Structures are given as C-alpha cells and as structure tokens.
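Collaborator request, handled under Task 6.
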Amino acid sequence: SLEGVDTQLARLSLGTAALGAFVLILVLIIGLYFVRSIILPIRKMASSAKRLAKGDFSEHIDFKRDDELGELCEAFNYMADELANSEKIKNDFISSVSHELRTPLTAIKGWSETILEMRSAETLIKGMRVITTETERLSSMVEELLDFSRIQNNRLMLQKDNTDILAELADAVLIYTERAAKNGIKINYHEPDGVAMIFGDKNRLRQVFLNIIDNAVKYTGNDGVINVEAVLKENSVEIRVSDNGCGISADDLPKVKNRFYKANNTVRGSGIGLAVADELTGLHSGKLEIESEIGKGTTVTIILPTIQKKADEGAK
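Structure tokens returned to the collaborator:
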C-alpha cells in the first residue's frame, strides 16, 4: 500500500508550502524594511537636491542612523547649511558692494552738476578734489575685486625678486600717516635696525600692508592709535599692526579672513581686503594671524620667510 508514502508526501508538501509562505512573508518584511530604511531616504534626498538646485537651502533630511546612509544624510545637511551660508554671504556682499559703489558715484555726480552750475574757481577746486578722491576709491575697489578673482582662478602672476620688505612697509605707513591724521588717528612705526630681504613681489607685499593698515584705520575711532612694528627673527620677519579700535568678537574672529565676510557692516568696504591679504601672504609662503578682543582693539601679525630661510631649505 502507498498510503504511508502519500501521507509522507502530503506532510512534506504541507511543510514545504508552510516554509515557502514563511520565506515569502520574511522576504516581504525585509523588502518593506529595505524600502523604508533606504529607498525612502534616497527619494527624500533626491527631492531635497532638486529644491536645493532651485535655491531652497532650508531643506534638511531628518534621518539618523549609525551607518553609511546616516553619514550621507549628515553630509547632505552640511552641504545645505554651507550653501545657505554662501548664499547669505553673497547677498550681503552684493548689498555691501552696491552701497560702496553708489556712495562715490553719487558724490561724483553731485559735484559734477555743482561745478557745471556754479562755475566758480573755488567750487571747481573743491569739487575736483572730491571727484578725484572718490574715483580713487572706485578704482581701488575694482582692483581689489579683480585681484581676488585672479587669485581664485589661479591667474595672479607674481613678479618675484629680492625685496627689502622694511622699505615697502615704511612706504605703506607713510601713505596712510597723513590720511589717518585727518581722522585724528596717530600711526607709530617702530622700525628695527637691519635689513629684511624677502623673495617676493614688492607691489603685492605693499598691497598686503596697505590693506591691513587701511582696516586698522577704518576700525579705529578718532584720537585712536595704531602701532606698526617689525621684528627680525632668525629666518623670518614678523610685522605687527595693532590698533585700539572696536575689536572683533570671538564669534566673528574665525570668519574675518573668509571672502566677502564683514564683522561690522557699518564700516565701508567690500569685505575681501583681508581675504586678499591672506591669500597674497600665503603665496609668499607666509602666514597672517589675527588676535582681537571687543573694545580693546586688534593685532594683525604677518610672518614672512626671509631669503636666509629659503637658502637653508635649498641647502637641505
């Protein structure tokens, strides 16, 4: 009789069917978990990426897991925050530059109309003086923007040669001494004994000093004092520009060298002067350091290697 065999086959078939059903249910559960834990966040990320592309930087992914997907979501949120910050800086920069450009243009236009109407020698001299000053401001701002663009695109060409850095520093101080005096600001220059020879572009190095001193003048009130000091080291020279102005807060201090960032929007400027100075210092293998405290002033230190240091490195 095959009844026993049929019974065994029935039991085997039933067990196989039950096992198959269990496996199917298990696969279904795993699939749902997979969809929920991986596919949905990826879809959310794709949707958020499209919103980011359209300029909505407020989109974030609320998904926390200790795996690669969680790290990806954190990286996406970090990217969104950085893009939002960059957008804010860009808008602030456009607003600031627009204001900076409008002020001298308004002065030039106003005095031009005044000269045409008044036609007196005194008005002509006064008006031309204002027009010349404001034109220089515009020219300086445009050159600053062009320099920053060249640096960012690696198109800035340096004309390096052996340069007496102390002579360039003295010229920069001399240029600003009279300008600062008009605002009641005194500049003290402490020049060391000796010569500090730098292998670099003297015009660009002077530009660094001018930017730093200009910042010190802008952020120092009337009757303020700016101290410029050069200290000769064994293989380098340290140039310190200190003021007793308004200072920089601890929150703003790490950001002041960022492009377009302005710690104080009430002071004129495009917000890239310090960034340009930092980039130019780096192109000369130097460092630019800033120390500041609110209400006590700011100290900017420029450290540049001298030719002796380069010679030692070549010998090694």
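The cover message to the collaborator said: "Residues 309-316 have pLDDT under 50 and may be disordered. Helices lie at 3-53, 68-118, 121-152, 165-182, 202-218, 273-283, 307-315. Please let us know whether this matches your experimental observations."
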